[in-house]
Write a structure and sequence with these properties.
Blueprint: H1 2-21, E1 28-31, E2 34-36, E3 47-53, H2 55-62, E4 70-75
Parallel strand pairs: 1-4
Antiparallel strand pairs: 1-2, 3-4
């Protein structure tokens, strides 16, 4: 649980970097295989795992949409 929460905090910080402070592009968020524009409403209690993909690996998997990195999030099955 603590690990998932840490990843969520990192992801939210990366999102803030783009929109509020430095105007840098945000990573691509993929929630259970679906590209989403934000994870602001996602509860950390629902997160099962977070995977960060960078550089060439992100582009290889997601094309140019992944050029700024990808944050893949899987949720718990309840």
């Amino acid at each position: 649980m603590k690990k998932a929460l840490c990843f969520l905090i990192i992801a939210l910080c990366l999102s803030c970097v783009k929109t509020k402070h430095y105007d840098k592009p945000a990573p691509l968020y993929v929630l259970v295989g679906v590209v989403v524009s934000t994870i602001d409403t996602l509860s950390s209690a629902l997160i099962a795992s977070v995977n960060v993909i960078k550089d060439e690996k992100a582009i290889a998997k997601y094309g140019q949409k992944g050029k700024h990195g990808v944050i893949e999030i899987l949720t718990k099955h309840e």
